[in-house]
Each structure stands twice: as C-alpha cells, then as structure tokens.
Design a protein that fits this description.
With 309 residues, the chain is mainly α. Helix content is 76%, strand content 0%. It has one domain: ABC transporter involved in vitamin B12 uptake, BtuC (Orthogonal Bundle), CATH 1.10.3470. Helix 1 packs across helix 12, helix 2 packs antiparallel against helix 12 and helix 3 packs antiparallel against helix 11.
C-alpha cells in the first residue's frame, strides 16, 4: 500500500521526513517520481547552465527533436512489417543516442567546414533530420503506433530502471564537472584566452555536446524530451539573472530545479488526494519553473554581471 495515499500537500513532506528517518525501502511510487526528477534536475542544471552561458540552448532543442530519427530508424530495422512487435527499450535508447550524436557532429561540421554561423548550422541540421524522421514515419511506419511515451516519457509510472538511467547520467555529468571545473568555467566565458593557455576549447565543446546528447536521451524514457527542455533552460535563465559568480550560478540553478521538483511531487499527490485529479508530475514541475521565471522577472535587483571568479 502506498504510504502517501490520501496525503495532502503538507502531509506529504511529513510522511517523507518520517520515512527518511525510519526506512524508505521499498520505494513508493511518489518516492520513485522524486528520485527520477531530482536526477533529471541535477543533470539539466549542469548541462543546461553551461549551454546557457555559451548561448547554445537551441542545441538542446535540436537534439530533442532529432532523436526521433533514431527511434524511427530502430523500429524500421527491427520491426519493419510487424505491427505487433515490441522493440526493446535499450534499442530505442541506443538509436536515439546515435541520432543525437549525429546531430552534434553535423552541426559542428557545418560550422567548421562550410563556415556557417552556429544558428544557421543548427537550423539546417535540425529541420533536415526532423523532416527525414517525418518522411520515414509517413512512408515506412504510418500504420504503426510507436507510442507517445517514446517522445514524452513513460509518464509517472517509473520503475527502478528509470532511476538507474537518470542517476548514472547525473553522476556522469557531476563527475565531468568536478574533473574539469576550471576548464568548463574558463571556456564558458573566454574561449580565446583559454586557447592561448592551451585549454583546447574545441575539446570541451565536444565534451559538452556529448553531455547534452546523453542527458537529453536519458530523459527520453523517464520524463521525455519535451519536459526536459524546461529543466535545461529555465533554471539557468533564473540563476543567470541573480548570480554574481559561476559557482553561485550553478548552485542557484540546481536549487531552483530541486525546489520545483519537490513542490511538483507534493502538489501532484495533493491534487490526487483532495480533488481526485491525476496530474502529470513532470508537467507540474515545468509549470512551476515557468511560474518562478515570470515572478522573478518582475523582481528587479541590482547585481553585477556574471563573472567566472
């Protein structure tokens, strides 16, 4: 039986605190949601923050759409001609990851070889691969239901595999940030100076693109690429407005994400218990982030420009 059944907003936190001290295993469905979304929030705070500082948030948007090419390609290869075939999720994950990496590689090639502006490269690859995905669906899989969960996640019915995927991704991102903290900080603000001291900015640009692809695809099964975009961009934009240093920027971005997740899970349980309304926790978190941004935009405070100090 779910210990949170019938709990309202404040009771949720009371039960959670009690279970943290007395033993939280086996995990309840609300706790699985909490763990999954906290892992996604942690990953997106790191990767999204670095993307926002580099003014590259459109890269994440492009990847979130072009992963459809990998999903459709895997289905056509493995399940062509069979309308009832269940393709294993790891194959979908692999296909989506390869499509994301292809997106990054093509954008980089267009930028370096053809000397295109970054936004032009993203626009060409984004629209081209997404259009190819739609074409493949129309011609090869128009009678097959791929499942909305492939793109929008598995809803709120999380399992241990979802927790493992998002936290492996989160630890991967945290490990790289700790290992190359100074390099990421310098390359986010001054690539030219970084190149003069032997930093190899292109190396860390490629590494960040790998993180972006891995983070976006990891959210494919759990929360979905649509919801993860709000976690990638909104907390970082809020943090950029108020933070004075790079360290404060990352910490504030994580804090905003974590608060949104905690409130979203509690509010979802409250709405179900009080009004019998089953609302999406991911959707609730996205709405809360948008609300935070709108409210904080109206609050003007004088801060210095964000620096890497």
């Amino acid at each position: 039986m779910n210990p949170y059944k019938g709990a309202d907003f404040f009771s949720f936190f009371a039960i959670l605190a009690k279970r943290l001290f007395t033993g939280i295993l086996p995990l309840a469905s609300d706790e699985k949601q909490l763990l999954v979304f906290l892992g996604v929030a942690l990953s997106c705070s790191i990767v999204g923050g670095l993307l926002v500082l580099r003014r590259m948030t459109m890269m994440a948007n492009a990847i979130s759409h072009t992963v459809l090419l990998g999903v459709v390609t895997v289905f056509l290869i493995v399940g062509a001609g069979s309308y009832s075939l269940l393709v294993p999720m790891p194959l979908f994950f692999l296909g989506a990851l390869l499509a994301a990496l292809l997106t990054v590689v093509l954008i980089t090639l267009f930028k370096t070889i053809f000397r295109l502006q970054e936004d032009a490269s993203i626009g060409l690859v984004f629209t081209g691969l997404f259009a190819l995905s739609i074409l493949l669906i129309t011609k090869g899989a128009h009678n097959v239901h791929l499942g909305v969960e492939v793109i929008l996640g598995s809803g709120d019915l999380f399992v241990e595999e979802d927790i493992q995927i998002v936290w492996i991704t989160a630890l991967f991102n945290v490990g790289l940030l700790l290992l190359f903290f100074k390099e990421y900080k310098l390359s986010s603000f001054d690539e030219v100076f970084g190149a003069t001291i032997g930093l190899y900015p292109r190396l860390f640009f490629g590494l960040l693109m790998l993180q972006s692809a891995f983070t976006t695809v990891a959210a494919l099964r759990a929360v979905g690429v649509v919801i993860v975009l709000s976690f990638l961009v909104t907390p970082a934009l809020i943090a950029k407005r108020y933070a004075k240093t790079f360290n404060q920027f990352l910490l504030l971005s994580m804090t905003v994400s974590f608060i949104a997740v905690l409130l979203a899970v509690a509010l979802s349980r409250h709405m179900l218990s009080t009004y019998s309304l089953g609302l999406s926790t991911g959707g609730m978190a996205s709405c809360l982030l948008a609300l935070f941004y709108i409210i904080l935009q109206k609050k003007t405070i004088k801060v210095s420009s964000l620096s890497y100090g």
